[in-house]
Amino acid sequence: MTTGADSLVQTARKAGVEICFANPGTTEMPMVIALDRTPGLRVVLGLFEGVCTGAADGWARMTGRPAATLLHLGPGLANGIANLHNARRARSPVVNWIGEHPARHRPFDPPLLSDIAVLAGCVGWTRSVGAVHEMAEASLAAVQAALGPPGRVATLIIPSDCQWAPGPAPLSASVTPTWREAPESVIQAAARQLRNGRTGLLLGGSALTAAGLRAAARVAAASGCPLWLETFPARQECGRHVPRIPPLPYFPEQACEALANLRGLVLAGAREPVAFFAYPQQPSRLLSEGAESFHLADPEDNVDAALALEALAEALDAPAWAMPPAQAAPVPPRSVPLTADRLCQLLATQLPERAIVMNEATTAGFTWNTLHAAQAAPHTMLFSTGGAIGQGLPNALGAALACPDRRVIAFQADGSGLYTLQALWSMVREQVDVTVVVCANRCYRILQVELERAGCREPGPTASSLTELTRPEINWTDLAKGFGMPACRVRSELALDEALRRCLAEPGPSLIEALL
Amino acid sequence: MTTGADSLVQTARKAGVEICFANPGTTEMPMVIALDRTPGLRVVLGLFEGVCTGAADGWARMTGRPAATLLHLGPGLANGIANLHNARRARSPVVNWIGEHPARHRPFDPPLLSDIAVLAGCVGWTRSVGAVHEMAEASLAAVQAALGPPGRVATLIIPSDCQWAPGPAPLSASVTPTWREAPESVIQAAARQLRNGRTGLLLGGSALTAAGLRAAARVAAASGCPLWLETFPARQECGRHVPRIPPLPYFPEQACEALANLRGLVLAGAREPVAFFAYPQQPSRLLSEGAESFHLADPEDNVDAALALEALAEALDAPAWAMPPAQAAPVPPRSVPLTADRLCQLLATQLPERAIVMNEATTAGFTWNTLHAAQAAPHTMLFSTGGAIGQGLPNALGAALACPDRRVIAFQADGSGLYTLQALWSMVREQVDVTVVVCANRCYRILQVELERAGCREPGPTASSLTELTRPEINWTDLAKGFGMPACRVRSELALDEALRRCLAEPGPSLIEALL
Question: Distance from A188 to chain B by nearest Cα, in Å?
């Protein structure tokens, strides 16, 4: 018998869903049975739902195609929302399959009942299946919704009786993302604005390919315009093979200063910049009063920003892009304690060609982005997008499953990593080539900075206790071993260098705890 | 200067809030500063928000007074929702303080923006502070809302500018929970119904004190009525000093069979029973058609069920309750592999007087409840209420902080424990007397049962992989050590017995991984 769950899963498979990150419960058992008999759909267990949603986001970022999750009722979805929030901000196509009590059961208010649709609505498109005959069509609709444009989080709420009842025939429609070209009139308008001067160019989204970054550098060379990357890109090509472009600063006073003299900002795949947080006497909008932004390629419309930048470079008769001269080789590792800066430098030196760097190293991660990524071999960087922490390890898992021929570096702050550390276990189970590098500074450093910005220059015991990860010391090598992952701890440049050499050469996952 | 955050925190302190479980971010920095300068309010850092909310629930269950949480924006609240769902089902008074962007910042849709009020609405009372002059009054309103009756989760959404601006004078109102007495007419009606026969008595909520359980046994002795406990009690007195009353079975077919012959069910502090999950050909309502339930003490109205049961026993001229004869001493520990049953038996033998057992041991936990808790010294049990897993370790942390003179046992399934294992670190930091006993059967046993109930008798590789926690093996002693907690692993009855003796005698937390 084809169950409703079979109809749903097989339709999703035909529509292009290849992987499902799952943490199911009783209301999803027919879905588990359907996954068990659907060939070609890989199923990965997460020990916590945030692992599943973050991994689906990582997979989607690397492939452009939707990954699925299977989660248990409202509390299961709630546990996954933080990373779905980040996926939403990254415009990642993710399909959530959430079990629900049958309609006839809900009026009795069973203990696990909650309003799943309201939760799902916080992160994107939502549909509640009403009857089993919808199961194939609803499944296809969710995949289509996830692909957009733009890519988004699409949640299907599936009563268990619709899963177990006899289902309709699966649908056979394949769905692919569509990209649009920027109209010629927009290219010309951007060229005019840049020629008029006092106009900057901000890159984001689909502009952050090697081709897009090179075209942007040509545009800057031809027009003399200042150039920035969005501060929190979903995915970006990095390394020696692309021009070195600074990210727009994180703190609003610095960003405002950078943008102060502009009367216009051309947006290529980026949104108009906004302060991440509000502060007293700081504006929300980072452009000066009277300055206007202009969309060369609006990411909400899936306009191909790299293509638009190439057309813009041609419109400006820009010169060809020339590879910058190689930088001097960095100081070799020494037998001295590690700093965040030297950690980044040594990682850049050893980074394998085509690596994927999932950067959730927070303060050390800014150092990496602004100073060291450009020295490394060509690689792809994934970054925090929505500010919800705990994205790094799950994202790295998903990226590694999406790209089994590439090495993934989970470049991880210790504080953030602890939100979803259960991802280490799934990395071991799936034997993905992930090297986890934990920047163990044993504090929420960014919050110490923010506390000082809020006027607290001498925190008392309570404020200190809320930003320090000491008392007791956290030992990441023990945590990794608890989840079956080989791990080591390093304190010196030499030890890090040696550990990186070993871990990057070995297949499968391992963890380096770098004490800073 | 008194900030808005000071007004809020000091008002809450005066209203009876003594503890705050916190995981703040930038939008909560003025709250952190306010906590830093408010004496008498203990602040506990959780490494993950589910730890904070679960701990607040545990504290509230043991004290009856509200505990606060401090969480970061929508994603921070989302990470805490699963345990807030359980707190809601337990009617625990919990006050959430959630930072928010200022109103002037929100129209710019900054990366961390999401609809916090919608998330909070899923778990209870919600109020968004509109202006700084509300900060004291809103703080008091949240504490009052949390205390009910009935107890509930109350969330205050607090824009950061209302935190940092000059605030109003704190309010000085103390708030205490109110309990009502059941009217005499209701007592008499219940007595009549019980005398008429074919009526059962279901105990829950405030009936589950020693006095309530004894009064219920007297009612049963006088009327001959069958007697059950609600299946998922928030808090219950257990041990040799109270009558042995079975919980209503978990699976609906068993519960229906138990209730089959009744035409009435008197509810003392319990809701009318409902199937936890829906199954094909199983009803949602567990009472037979035509059978009616009757509230002796409605938990939604905070009616004191223990008092009502005592009045009912008197109305029925019930005999005094007699302590049952002591049971034979169990078989002493042997040098043989552990089973869940023997684990429970050995724990019951050693359980210290007045211990608190947080039972999230799932399948082993049912064994404890139905067979072994009654043999142990007088103790209090906390139980999963809403079905969202990951409650155990955080709840144990909160209960231990609430009752520093009592030993807490976190009786924990391995699968559930992994959702919020970060609680181990806070236990060490706060040096609470918690003994964690992990029942390591290395699978989601309950899901294996449910998979079979769903008709899957021979699971394929995918279905098996979703219910097995092998490949790789999880080592709880390493995980505990990673968080700074002493830990050991036991495989035999003798080793468990020895480990329990040692851990229960030592101050501070430790963990025993019991391999089953």
Answer: 28
Work out the end-to-end distance of chain B between its first and last CA atoms, rounded to an integer number of angstroms.
58
At A27-44, the pLDDT tens digits run: 999 999 999 999 999 999
Contact A201, A216 (CB under 8 A): yes
- Interface TM-score (ipTM) > 0.95: yes
Predicted confidence at residue B327, as pLDDT, reads 78
Asked if A28 is an interface residue toward chain B (Cβ–Cβ < 8 A), one would say no
R_g of chain A, CA atoms, integer Å:
24
What is the interface size between A and B, counted as CB pairs within 8 Å? 301
Mean of per-residue pLDDT scores for chain B = 96
Alpha-carbon Rg for chain B, nearest whole angstrom, is 24
- Work out the average pLDDT over B222-231: 97
pLDDT digits (tens, 9 = 90+) for A407-416: 999 999 999 9
| Cα–Cα distance, B127 to B157 (Å, whole number) | 6
Q: Which residues of chain A make contact with B425, given a CB cutoff of 8 A?
A: 472, 474
Instruction: Give the DSSP letter string of A149-202.
Output: SSP-EEEEEEEHHHHHSB-PPPP--------BPPPHHHHHHHHHHHHHSSEEEE
Q: Which among A32, A428, A447 has CB closest to B25?
A: A447
Contact B29 A121 (CB under 8 A): no
Rounded to the nearest integer, the mean pLDDT of chain A is 96
Q: Is the pLDDT of residue A110 over 90?
A: yes
At A390-410, the pLDDT tens digits run 999 999 999 999 999 999 999
Those of residues 448-507 in B touching chain A at CB distance below 8 A are: 450-451, 453-456, 459-463, 465-466, 469, 471-485
Half-sphere exposure of B387 (CA within 13 A, CB side): 20
Question: What percent of chain A is predicted at pLDDT more than 90?
Answer: 95
The answer to whether the CB of A278 falls within 8 A of the CB of A284 is: yes
Hey, what are A126's tokens? 């939502």
Identity of the residue in A75, A161, A459 whose CB atom sits nearest the CB atom of B36: A459
Candidate from A25, A43, A109 with C-beta closest to B447? A25
Question: A118 and B114: CB-CB below 8 Å?
Answer: no
Closest CB to A471 among B285, B429, B466: B429
**Cβ of A39 under 8 Å from any chain B Cβ?**
no
Position B65 pLDDT exceeds 90? yes
Does the beta-carbon distance from A466 to B108 stay under 8 Å?
Answer: no
Across the interface, do B387 and A24 touch by the CB < 8 Å criterion? no
Q: Which domains are assigned to chain A?
A: 4-164 (3.40.50.970), 184-315 (3.40.50.1220), 340-515 (3.40.50.970)
For residue A8, the number of C-alpha atoms closer than 13 Å in the C-beta half-sphere is: 37
Q: Reduced to 3 states, what is the DSSP secondary structure of residue B264? A: strand
Q: Which of B478, B485, B488, B510 to mutate to test the interface with A (most CBs of A within 10 A)?
A: B478
User: Does residue B258 sit at the A interface (CB-CB below 8 Å)?
Assistant: no
Of the given ranges (A102-111, A176-185, A244-253, A422-431), which has the lowest mean pLDDT? A176-185
What span, in angstroms and rounded, lies between the C-alpha atoms of B50 and B82?
Answer: 7
For position A174, what pLDDT does the model report? Answer: 85
pLDDT at B326 (0 to 100):
78
Say how many C-beta atoms besides its own lie within 10 A of residue A137's C-beta: 16
- pLDDT computed for residue A102 by the predictor: 98
